[in-house]
């Protein structure tokens, strides 16, 4: 199973929190639009296209990355998909002038990223429950 080193996952999460905070502080949706692109493009082409990961790699160093634990790439992709959906909703809400919805959607992404940096992965819990539901559904249909 392919894994992504946790320091790179954390760098992405910190980048998410930083951009959402900047959008709130400066009341500027441009940060959310950029963050959406920063998360969406790697979802299409892979982690190597993530700006936050590219910036963090030289700072972290190859030796530390090699020694670090990892997160399953499938799980990281699931989490990133949730973030992209919510950032997409936030972006569309900003464009429509629905600022409360825009703030709410981007705040959910930031809250999940903060929780993940602190050690609790909201997306992992959703992923586990989804897999569990899927398995139970398969078993009951047999």
- What's the tally of helices? 7
Mean pLDDT: 94
End-to-end CA span:
28 Å
State the helicity in percent bands. Answer: over 70%
> Widest sheet: strand order?
1-2
Q: Summarize the main sheet.
A: 2 strands, antiparallel
Strand-pairing-aware structural class: mainly alpha
**N-to-C SSE series?**
EHHHHEHHH
- By DSSP, the count of extended strands is 2
How much beta, percentage-wise? Answer: under 5%
> Rg to the nearest angstrom?
16 Å
Task: Tell me, briefly, the overall form.
Answer: globular
The low-confidence parts are: none
Description:
The protein has 142 residues and is mainly α. 80% of the residues lie in helices and 4% in strands. It has a two-stranded antiparallel ribbon. α5 crosses α7. The longest helix is centred in the middle third of the chain and has 24 residues.
Summarize the structure in short.
This protein has 142 residues and is mainly α. It contains 7 helices and 2 strands.
